[in-house]
Write a structure and sequence with these properties.
The chain is an alpha/beta fold and 193 residues long. The longest helix is centred in the first third of the chain and has 45 residues.
Length: 193
């Protein structure tokens, strides 16, 4: 055989062996990655810990929770029923007995605010003061409250009193600091009952 044939045969054998070695290397790397991925998945599943410190899977935790709560169905229904009831009007009402109340006379009838203060104090309202309201002569009594639900227990003492959420700052001849409820007595309540 001449040198060219020997080189050609050697070259072909070399290339074939390189192709076989490359194939083996590819298969080996593929097997390595498959094994590595499966091992990592198992390790991650093993290391996954819930807030309670459990190593159970989500499905196992759900099954345990369902099993634990089987007997609680009637209690949950009762609790849900109680919590979804609408509050009654009485629950929304805020007592005015311990609130700071300022009775203002808008009628011009001398001593009217003091008469109403005495009436309300006798009914258990403990922080009642008086003053005059000079912005306008009101026909109807108006009760101004600092928050919704207040003043309803006061309205029953007056004829058709209107309750509004708000405050007064002008037209008053006394300090309004820390006043929760303003009662502007109108002409329809010029007689204390």
């Amino acid at each position: 055989m001449d040198k060219k044939t020997i080189l050609r045969v050697f070259g072909e054998a070399f290339l074939r062996s390189m192709v076989v070695l490359m194939g083996i290397a590819i298969v080996g790397f593929a097997a390595f990655f498959i094994i590595k991925v499966n091992t990592d998945k198992k390790q991650m599943a093993k290391d996954t810990v819930t807030e309670e410190g459990s190593t159970h899977s989500d499905d196992e935790l759900q099954a345990m929770l369902d099993e634990e709560n089987e007997g609680d169905i009637s209690e949950d229904a009762t609790t849900q029923e109680v919590t979804t009831q609408e509050p009654t009007t009485e629950e929304k009402s805020i007592s005015s007995k311990d609130k700071s109340i300022l009775v203002l006379n808008s009628t011009g009838v001398a001593g009217l605010a003091k008469s109403w203060m005495n009436k309300l104090s006798g009914e258990g309202f403990t922080k009642v003061a008086t003053g005059n309201y000079s912005l306008s002569r009101e026909e109807q009594t108006k009760i101004y409250v600092s928050e919704e639900g207040m003043g309803e227990d006061l309205a029953e003492y007056f004829q058709n009193a209107a309750i509004e959420v708000g405050s007064l700052s002008s037209g008053i001849d006394v300090s309004t600091t820390d006043v929760d409820i303003f009662i502007v007595v109108g002409k329809n309540d010029s007689t204390v009952r």
